[in-house]
Amino acid sequence: MLKPGTPEQIEAVVHDRIRRVLQQRSGQVHVLSGTDKLNATLGLSSLDLAFLVAELEADLGVDPFSKLVSITSIRSVDDLVRAYRGAILGGDKLQAQESDLAAAVQRANNRRARRARK
Amino acid sequence: MLMNQKVGAASRDLDQGRVRDATRNVAVVSGGSRGLGAELVSGFLDRRYAVATLSRTKTVFIERLLRRPRAKNFCWSAVDARDDEALRRFVAEIVERFGRIDILVNNLGIAVEGVLPTMRAPDIVEAVQVNLTSALVLSQACSRAMLRQGGGCIVNISSVNAVRGHAGVAVYSAAKAGLDGLTRSLARELGPRNIRVNSVAPGYFESEMVKGMTDEQKQRIVRRTPLGRLARAEDVANAVYFLASPQASFITGQVLIVDGGVTC
User: Fold this and answer.
1) Does the complex come out with an ipTM higher than 0.90?
2) Tell me, what's the pLDDT at A105?
3) Where residue A103 falls among pLDDT bands split at 50, 70, 90?
């Protein structure tokens, strides 16, 4: 089992697994984009997705879909990567990133409010 | 924890064990400490499977198996069937130890009797948890291993009570009918990945579950049975071995009734 510690490493593992599944199906090597839709663009069925989740559980030691996330909310490659980042980095790194983002949004809103008052 | 090795020894021997067992098929039997479950555990071991089973308590049968000289192809874990997480851990430990799961027999079950209007709510919930939910959880966990290895077989032990109505067993019937529904839908879901799912529906057979019956009640069942006797655990187990075998490789989503003809 791999122990990826960064968001980039998690993305690499998820992309690699998706590519392997696609290669098994079509025999071709695919170039992935984060916005690719798993079903509509890449043609993955729900059973392919189940296989992918089983493989990723073996790779990463987590299953975000057992409790945290509903698989039906996953549409794109990026959605899948986000689910695994959330499950692995979880409460610490991800929340820190989200709170940084929330703080930035708050600062921007404050600036807008100040400009409006002027 | 799988009980025939200490934790340290288990992890130390894991890689060697996996190589040793690489060509050995692995059967998981829930509720294998007594009755039909024990019959299945013995039968699969005789057929040279590695076998994993769980039950709430360790019986003499389990202790005897764990003491055998060739105990490494058998493991038992104390698991409460109502504990979903413990069931998942049990499956994860089997995969870690044996590297694969070829057959799952969802045999766990408890008898629940009483007319529905007067049953205690917690008893209803427990009966569904043990007879149905545990099978869903084990099927989910084991099917992931089967998906990864490219095939497998699940056999659900249902009941004739799922096929025919009987007064006083409404909750048991509902849970067992749920198992048959699981069988049919899961067969469709997993068939494309070479995972077969079937049910075996026994009639009344000599087991802990009929221990509470009077001789008169048993005789009444025998009179209604065209083959003129109660089933034995081995009659039911033989149907499971068949469905799990290559001879049944084109059978999936079916309920095989083993009741001596009562429901024919």
Assistant:
1) no
2) 67
3) low
Of the ranges A114-118, B12-16, B229-233, which one carries the lowest mean pLDDT score? Answer: B12-16
Sequence-separated contacts (24+) of B190-195 with Cβ below 8 Å: B190/A47, B190/B143, B190/B146, B190/B147, B191/B252, B191/B253, B192/A47, B193/A47, B193/A51, B193/B146, B193/B147, B193/B150, B193/B151, B194/B150, B194/B151, B194/B152, B195/B143, B195/B146, B195/B147, B195/B151, B195/B152, B195/B153, B195/B154
Contact B145 A55 (CB under 8 A): no
Task: Tell me what pLDDT residue A2 has.
Answer: 61
Q: With beta carbons less than 8 A apart as the criterion, state whether B1 and B77 touch.
A: yes
Beginning with the edge strand found earlier in the chain, give each strand of the sheet holding B152-157 in spatial order.
B74-78, B50-55, B26-30, B103-106, B152-157, B195-202, B255-258
Residues 136-155 of B with CB under 8 A from A: 144-145, 147-148
Looking up tokens 């469905």 gives B243
Would the pLDDT of B88 be above 50? yes
Q: State pTM to two decimals.
A: 0.83
Q: Residue A14: what are its φ and ψ, rounded to 5°? A: -65, -45
Given a contact cutoff of 8 angstroms between Cβ atoms, the answer to whether B202 and B231 are in contact is yes
Residue by residue, DSSP assigns B85-125 as HHHHHHHHHHHHHHS---EEEE-------S-GGGS-HHHHH
Average pLDDT, chain B: 89
Pairing mode of beta strands B152-157, B255-258: unpaired
Q: Do A55 and B148 touch (CB under 8 A)?
A: yes
Tell me how long chain B is. Answer: 264
Q: What is the mean pLDDT of residues B181-189?
A: 98
pLDDT band at B21 (very low <50, low <70, confident <90, very high): very low
Contact of B89 with chain A, judged by CB distance below 8 Å, is answered with no
Q: Which chain A residue is nearest to residue B186, measuring alpha carbons?
A: A47
